[in-house]
Amino acid sequence: MGRIVRSAEPVSRSNPTLEGIPGAAPLDVDDGDQDAGSKGGDGYLDRVAKYVPAEVVAFFIFVNSILDNAAEEPVAKALSDAVAAESKGIPGDIPGAVRAAIYKIEMAGISVWTISWAVLFIALAMTPIYLKSVSDAADNAEAPGANIVMSMLAFPFWAYAVDALALRPWHDGALASIMLATFTLISGAVRPEYINSVLNLIPGIGSKK
C-alpha cells in the first residue's frame, strides 16, 4: 500500500538484459547513479508525506475540536483574567489558570482535561497498530518498522501544532510552527534502512533474517 515508506533496494551493477547470455560481459553501472537507481525506495518528499500519521491525526483533530468547543469560553476567560492580572503587576500562572479552567469542565462527570489526555494517548497507541495493519507483502520487511518509529515521533509534534487541548496550557503558535517545520525537514532525510539498522541492534526487535 502507498501509506508505507519503501526501503531502497539497490539495482544490480550489471546490465540485467545481458545476464545469462554466453560471452556477454556485464556492463557496470556508474557509481553516481546508484542512489538514483535504487529500486522501490521512496524519495525525500515521499518520506516527508508518508511519515505523517495522517489518518490518526485526522481522528485526533476531530475529537479535539469537540473537546475544544466545550472548553472555548472557560479557557478564554481564564486567559483574559490571567493577562489582566499580569498587566496590573500581579504575578500569575497562565498555564495553571488554563489547566484549572479545562479541569472544571466535565462530560458525563469526567473532566475534559482527563478525556483530552486519554484521547492523546489512544491516538499515539493506535499509530503503530494502524500502520502495521496497512502494510502488506509488497512492503519491504523493514519499512513498517521505520514508519512506526517515525510516525510515533511525529505525532506529538502534530498534536502540539493542532493545539491539542491536553497541551493547551503550554501551547505557543510560533513555537509549534518552528517545531513542526524542523521535524518535517529532518524526517525526510531519515531512510527506513537507517532505522532498521538501529532496530537490529535491539534484542528481540531486530530483523531475524
Summarize the structure.
This protein is mostly helical.
Could you characterize what this model shows?
By secondary structure, the chain is an all-alpha fold. It has one domain (31-199). The protein is built from seven helices and two strands, in the order αααββαααα. It has helices spanning 44-50, 54-87, 94-104, 112-134, 143-161, 173-187, 192-199; strands spanning 106-107, 110-111. Strands 1-2 form a two-stranded antiparallel sheet. A hairpin with a 2-residue loop joins strand 1 and strand 2. Helix 2 (54-87) crosses helix 3, helix 4 (112-134) runs antiparallel to helix 5 (143-161) and helix 5 (143-161) runs antiparallel to helix 6 (173-187). The longest helix is centred in the middle third of the chain and has 34 residues, at 54-87. 27% of the residues are buried.
Write out key terms for the chains shown.
mainly alpha; two-stranded antiparallel sheet; 56% helix; elongated; 2% strand; 2 strands; 209 residues; 7 helices; single chain
Number of strands: 2
**How far from one another are the termini?**
23 Å
Query: What low-confidence regions span 5 or more consecutive residues with pLDDT below 50?
Result: 10-38
H/E element sequence: HHHEEHHHH
Q: Major sheet, described briefly? A: 2 strands, antiparallel
What is the rounded Rg?
A: 24 Å
Q: Hey, roughly how much beta strand do the residues contain?
A: under 5%
- Strand order of the biggest β-sheet: 1-2
Counting structural domains, the number is 1
Structural class: mainly alpha
Helix content: 55-70%
The overall average pLDDT, rounded, is 76
Overall spatial form:
elongated
User: How many helix segments?
Assistant: 7
